[in-house]
Amino acid sequence: MTAPLPRTPPLRLPISITPARSPSSIYTITTLFTAYAASLDISLDFQSFATELATLPDRYAPPHGEILLAHDAAGVAVGCIALRPLPLPADHSPREKPLYGELKRLYVVPAGRGLGIGKMLVEKALGVAVEKGYAEVRLDTLPHMWAARRLYESVGFGRVEAYHGTLVEGLIFMGKRLGGEEAGDEGRGRKGPTLEGEGK
Questions:
Q1: pTM of the full predicted structure?
Q2: Whether the bond into 63 is cis, omega within 30 of 0
Q3: What is the 3-state composition of the chain as percent helix, strand, coil, each rounded to the nearest 5?
Q4: Per-residue pLDDT tens for 123-143?
Q5: Are 57 and 65 in contact (CB under 8 A)?
Q6: Which run of H or of E encompasses 70?
Q7: Helix, strand or coil for residue 162?
Q8: For a disulfide at 78, which of 10, 21, 64, 112, Cβ 3.0-4.6 Å?
Q9: Torsion of CA 128, 177, 140, 79, to 10 degrees
Q10: What is the pLDDT of residue 167?
């Protein structure tokens, strides 16, 4: 059974990253998501975060979504990230696949920070997005999260226009095209999908 959080550092390398699909893995993800929310300086109540936890994996479920779980060599859960589809336009074909994915809930436990686990999770999630046929992946991040922004920029994310309405002042929106083109759409008139009332 997957351990929910590391008990004592240091972690045992190497790190493995796998989909979280079993009941025990979803329980672990619930624990990690809760720790992620507690690490922020804002409340996620406006996102109906309690409902998200209670209904996992919901929008993160295959075929268009995925939750990834990182473990150390001892099988201790040390981080997570989630991928979900952004809504299709209202005039889309019923058979059309989502073109835009969104990364959410990137979190690494304190004992695992500074080891590159966050970057490993992002790169693995991008690979999953490619496998699922997404043309672009987007995300949002808080303005004071400089380390997270540098991480995203290091794997090719650039600033994009806001793709949802938000209650969080200064929220930064980023995107990465998955076809080899340069990320970012500022000044290009490319707006993509829009969500209402979401954020972080």
A1: 0.84
A2: yes
A3: 30, 25, 50
A4: 999 999 999 999 999 999 999
A5: yes
A6: strand 66-71
A7: coil
A8: 112
A9: 30
A10: 74
User: Residue 53 in contact with residue 30, Cβ under 8 Å?
Assistant: yes
Q: Which amino acid is at 7?
A: R
Rounded Cα distance, 74 and 12, in Å: 6
Picking from 171, 161, 116, the residue whose alpha carbon sits closest to that of residue 136 is 161
Residues sharing a CB contact under 8 Å with residue 52, sequence separation 6 or more, in sequence order: 33, 58
Phi, psi of 106 (to 5 degrees): -70, 125
Tens digit of pLDDT for each residue in 17-60?
999 999 999 999 999 999 999 999 888 887 889 999 999 999 99
The whole-angstrom separation of Cα 51 and Cα 43 is 14
Residue with tokens 């589809």: 85
State the number of CA atoms in the 13 A half-sphere of 137 facing the CB. Answer: 28
Strands 158-159 and 136-141: unpaired
Chain-centroid distance, C-alpha 103? 3
**Average pLDDT for 186-200:** 45
Measured distance CA(67)–CA(56) in Å, rounded: 10
d(CA 186, CA 4) in angstroms, rounded, equals 40
